[in-house]
Write a structure and sequence with these properties.
The complex is a heterodimer of chains A (574) and B (246). In chain A, 37% of the residues lie in helices and 18% in strands. Chain A has 574 residues and is an alpha/beta fold. Among the domains of chain A are: 243-349, Succinate dehydrogenase/fumarate reductase flavoprotein, catalytic domain (Flavocytochrome C3, Chain A, domain 1); 421-541, Methane Monooxygenase Hydroxylase, Chain G, domain 1 (Up-down Bundle). In chain A, strands 1, 2, 6, 7, 8, 9 and 16 form a seven-stranded mixed β-sheet that branches. Chain A has a four-stranded antiparallel β-sheet with strand order 15-10-19-20, with helices on one face. In chain A, β7 (162-170) and β8 form a beta hairpin. In chain A, α5 crosses α15 (494-518) and α13 (443-457) runs antiparallel to α14 (464-482). The longest helix of chain A has 25 residues, at 494-518. Chain A is globular. By secondary structure, chain B is an alpha+beta fold. Chain B has ten helices and seven strands. In chain B, the strands form two sheets. Chain B has a five-stranded mixed β-sheet. A two-stranded antiparallel ribbon of chain B has the order 6-7. The chains are: A alpha/beta (574), B alpha+beta (246). At the A-B interface, α3, α4, α10, α13 and α15 of A face α1, α2 and α3 of B.
Chain lengths: 574, 246
């Protein structure tokens, strides 16, 4: 049992990759179980994409609407996901979210309040009741700061600005991870009995996205390469409202809370077009429907000058808008010269969230590889074909906690693994290869072309021909990536960092395209122009992708029937 | 639109120099867009931190034309484009490379602050008006621009004795939390050296979240320290006769 002698080696019971809401919540739980915990993140602590979450976290606390309960939240989540969600995850999520919210409050989070002093809740798309606990429009910041402070005080080891490039294995179980310090470019190995992947999403594969540079699908790609299964990779959420102007801010999120607080969508003729697409729920229809509606309005010539729709909250009192949507007010005022208390915003769809991800056990977040767990956006199943707004933050704390607990328990009953130097050497070779080439393309160009291609061919509306073309293009991009070259030294070199992230993006983009091609129907966020209807037969199965040899293979798994209790809830309609 | 010249610091701990880059300016462009354009087309190894690009994460702090700013919030059209725009790393922290600085000291200071501790038997009810003032402090995105501009850190480098505005804001959020039961005044006085602050309000001016750092956080905390540690009579004598005579 020797440590790898070549590089710095960190040894822990539980290694958590990612320091957003899911990773931090997992770390807190694993610490509470007495485990020695490491958290590794690509950015500084507290900068993870969770910080950008705006509208709130969904939990059936019933602080305002007394009729709300977990059953209704469960049903809303399943319906929003067009019934291909993992029903057990949807059940656990709805049942446990209120306790997880109370816990945040007990750790110091300060939510907006009701008249009677409880946590205030707001309406959101697809939720039957006012359900989103929030802090103005900066709920994610409140959550990440609360979890960060809690974890720091409990004593996890944080390894900031460190990128993991490979999971290491000891036989059929995980043994650790290999990566580099972004700052110095030096290599590091982590040895751990359990690993929790909490790396978030994959939005950086698309040109117009609300996601930050970190969202390159690392965790899904790492898990896939280590033999884990990916679930439902065709379901990518395009948030209906991203900024469309000016060009530099295209894609930046405009919170659904604007609509939750009464914002109205109109086309250039002043028509509230949602009347045509979902007359019952209007602006608060589910995100898949609203995104397609805006896209269609623009495509049919009724878009705004910059190719979006108008979103207007200016009929509400200016003070109210500034109080409930402060960051939207500043964002538009400073970046787009628009005063949202006086006039409408221009908005359009932006790639936002991956419903699919690592296939996990509902109770524990355990993947198909021994010792490897996943939670949050990196894991699949809870949201089915479309996620409801507010269900992501609650997902992070419900399943982050569960994964942290299970990972710590797994570590307790597992002997220390050994690291295999051959795997480490191979990982090192892969990461350094772009430096060795005397000439070659710049990774930025390849990334640009990948984003452009995914936007064009694997976007909101998909066809057989486009998706087949996308696979051809992906193959070409992969060939180009094999020959790319990185300039400069290893000291904080963003070009080098991108060369590594690009490999992950290519893997998850390919998984997404394969799954999208295979699902010959439209469901939730997956819209096929050549198969515009949802089909019952497709509602009975999910897609799984796994690495066989060097090939990405896809198979269908039949869905298990819900227990009678849950089926009964689905049958009731309020 | 015309080109702009960005004069960007390139270098590391050992030293470096400003390098000029020509960047085509587009409508609504911010300084971070210009830096990204340089990375994509001219210098792929130009080091910069950024995440959200929407002033929510506080990663892209730098000094633009000498002023501490978030690059994602600094519009090119608000700068004089007839002369080079200088972009330098935050001066109060050691350079790692180019625009990236070593801000790890901040995380060390943060660890010294005892977390929220509810009073025993507390009921989890709070009025919005009591929460309001704490929520102002909780808006902090940890960009560390207030730390960068603070002369106690920037010019006098008192990192051993002084916590800096960011952490006074954090302590204020805890001390003024309606349900918190701890007292952190000794920490403020002894570990965080709040006495070094002479309320020049530089921190308030650079805060991208427009937190009234001096008026709402630091001054009330200073008052608490005074109330606890200094006899009011002595204070009056000092005011009249000056500190030397007391």
């Amino acid at each position: 049992m020797t440590a790898n002698s070549k590089y710095e080696t960190q040894e822990h019971d539980v290694l958590i990759i990612g320091a957003g809401g899911a990773g931090l919540r997992a770390a807190i739980e694993a610490l509470a179980q007495g485990a020695k915990v490491a958290v590794v993140c690509k950015s500084l602590l507290g900068k993870a994409h969770t910080v950008m979450a705006e509208g709130g976290l969904a939990a059936a606390m019933a602080n305002l609407d007394k009729a709300d309960d977990w059953r209704t939240h469960f049903r809303d989540t399943m319906r929003g996901g067009k019934l291909v969600n993992n029903w057990r995850m949807a059940q656990l999520h709805a049942q446990e979210a209120p306790d997880r919210v109370r816990e945040l409050e007990q750790w110091g989070a300060l939510f907006d309040r009701t008249e009677s002093g409880d946590i205030l809740q707001r309406a959101f798309g697809g939720h039957t009741f006012r359900r989103l606990c929030h802090v103005g429009d900066r709920t994610g910041l409140e959550m990440i700061r609360t979890l960060q402070d809690r974890g720091v005080q409990m004593g996890f080891d944080v390894f900031m600005e460190c990128t993991i490039t490979k999971l290491l294995k000891d036989g059929d179980r995980v043994s650790g991870a290999f990566g580099y310090w972004r700052e110095s470019g030096r290599f590091v190995t982590f040895k751990a009995k359990s690993i929790v992947i909490a790396t978030g999403g994959i939005g950086k594969s698309w040109k117009i996205t609300s996601n930050s540079w970190e969202c390159t699908g690392d965790g899904m790609a790492l898990a896939y390469e280590a033999g884990a299964e990916l679930l439902d990779m065709e379901f990518v959420q395009f948030h209906p409202t991203g900024m469309v102007w000016p060009p530099g801010v295209q894609g930046i999120l405009v919170t659904e809370a604007v609509r939750g607080e009464g914002g109205l969508l109109r086309n250039k003729n002043g028509e509230r077009f949602m009347e045509k697409y979902d007359p019952k729920k209007m602006e608060l229809s589910t995100r898949d429907v609203v995104a397609r509606s805006i896209y269609t309005e623009v495509k049919e010539g009724r878009g705004t000058p910059h190719g979006g729709a108008y979103l207007d909250i200016s009929h509400k009192p200016a003070e109210y808008v500034k109080r409930k949507l402060p960051s939207m007010y500043h964002q538009f005022k400073e970046l787009a010269d628009v005063d949202i208390t006086k006039g409408p915003m221009e908005v359009g769809p932006t790639c936002h969230y991956m419903m699919g991800g690592i296939r996990v056990d509902a109770e524990t977040g355990q993947s198909s590889v021994k010792g490897l767990f996943a939670a949050g956006e990196a894991a699949g199943g809870l949201h089915g074909a479309n996620r409801l707004g507010g269900n992501s933050l609650s997902d992070l704390i419900v399943f982050g906690r569960r994964a942290g607990l299970a990972a710590a328990e797994h570590a307790k009953k597992t002997a220390a693994p050994s690291l295999d130097n051959a795997q480490i050497d191979e990982a090192e070779r892969q990461v350094l290869a772009p430096f060795d080439r005397a000439e070659g393309e710049n990774p930025y160009t390849i990334h640009h072309d990948l984003q452009d291609m995914m936007q064009r061919l694997v976007g909101i509306f998909r066809t057989d021909a486009d998706l087949r073309q996308a696979l051809v293009e992906l193959e070409k991009l992969r060939e180009r990536a094999k020959k790319m070259r990185v300039e400069g030294s290893r000291l904080f070199n963003p070009g080098w960092h991108l060369s590594r992230d690009l490999q992950c993006m290519l893997t998850v983009s390919e998984a997404c395209t394969h799954a999208a091609l295979a699902r010959k129907e439209s469901r939730g966020a997956h819209s096929r122009l050549d198969f515009p209807k949802s089909e019952d037969v497709w509602g009975q199965k999910n897609h799984v992708i796994v690495k066989k040899g060097d090939a990405m293979t896809l198979f269908e798994v039949p869905r298990t029937a819900m227990p009678a209790e849950l089926a009964q809830i689905m049958a009731e309609d309020k | 639109m015309a080109d702009a010249t960005l004069r960007v610091f390139r270098g590391d701990r050992e030293g470096g120099k400003a390098v000029d880059y020509q960047v085509p300016v587009t409508e609504g462009m911010v300084v971070l867009d210009a830096i990204h354009s340089i990375q994509a087309h001219q210098a792929p190894d130009l080091a910069v931190r950024w995440n959200c690009k929407a002033a929510k994460c506080g990663s892209c702090s730098a000094e633009v034309n000498g002023k501490p700013r978030l690059m994602c919030k600094t519009r090119m059209d608000a700068l004089p484009l007839d002369q080079p725009i200088t972009v330098s790393p935050m001066k109060a922290f050691p350079v790692i490379r180019d625009l990236v600085t070593d801000v790890s000291w901040n995380y060390k200071v943060n660890k010294k602050i005892p977390p929220f501790q509810p009073r025993p038997g507390v009921k989890w009810k709070m009025e919005q008006r009591d929460v309001d003032r704490v929520q102002e402090f909780r808006k902090c995105i940890e960009c560390f621009l207030c730390q960068d501009v603070c002369h106690v850190l920037r010019d006098h480098d008192k990192k051993e004795q002084f916590g800096g505005p960011r952490f006074f804001v954090r302590v204020a959020a805890l001390e003024m939390h309606p349900l918190d039961g701890l007292d952190r005044t000794r920490l403020l006085k002894e570990e965080l050296g709040i006495g070094f602050c002479n309320i020049t309000k530089c921190c308030t001016e650079v805060c991208p979240e427009e937190i009234h750092i001096t008026d709402n956080a630091i001054i009330p905390l200073k008052e608490r320290v005074v109330d606890e540690f200094y006899d009011p009579v002595t204070m009056i004598v000092r005011k009249i006769f000056g500190a030397k005579n007391t």
